[in-house]
Amino acid sequence: MGINKNKKKLKWKVDYENSLYKIYDWDKKLTGYFFPRYGSVESGETGELNDEHTDELNKSKAKVSGGNLLVPMLKLNLLDVQEGIDLDYTIESLETNLERTRLWKRWIAENHREFNIVGSGIYTAREDRNMLSIVLSIGSDFILGEIEVITKLAPLLDNLHESGLL
């Protein structure tokens, strides 16, 4: 048996931790999070979804119907500044972030069918009030497990990266 040389090496990595998957890029930088929709486990009772139960679902490579991908959207650099901000800088920052927001909107409009994105929402990052994150709700089925999840998400992550959004 020969090695399949056409097999694309994944540049993304995931680590399962506390019922979610942390996504890292090729430089080992945290890129986002994937939250499986555990309440949708195929053919079986989900019961209580505590950490022990979700760990077992991941170990058994259960099938779930979708999940949420959370990635950074934009950095405002306008909040919690003690010394005040120059008006021109404020206008430039808002214009730059407005254009990036429009880029996200176009990307979702052009790619939602291909990646089965059924919704999205914007949130302030818990760790950084200046960072807005976007959650992409994905309607596709997922097999749980680190390799299975990243294999499913890689085309979406690659597209976001190539579009300048990650």
- Strands side by side in the biggest sheet: 1-2-3-4-6-5
Largest sheet: 6 strands, antiparallel
Termini gap: 38 Å
How many distinct beta strands?
A: 6
Q: Shape, please?
A: elongated
Structural class, from secondary structure content?
A: alpha+beta
pLDDT averaged over residues: 88
> Which range does the strand content fall in?
25-35%
Domain module tally: 1
Number of helices: 3
What kind of assembly state do the chains in view correspond to? single chain
Q: Which residues form runs of ≥5 with pLDDT under 50? A: 1-7
- Run of helices and strands: EEEHEHEEH
Helix content: 25-40%
Integer-rounded radius of gyration: 18 Å
Explain what the structure shows.
The chain has one domain. It has helices at 51-59, 87-111, 146-162; strands at residues 13-17, 20-24, 30-36, 63-75, 117-124, 131-143. It has 166 residues and is of the alpha+beta class. Helix content is 31%, strand content 31%. A six-stranded antiparallel sheet has the order 1-2-3-4-6-5. Strand 2 and strand 3 form a beta hairpin.
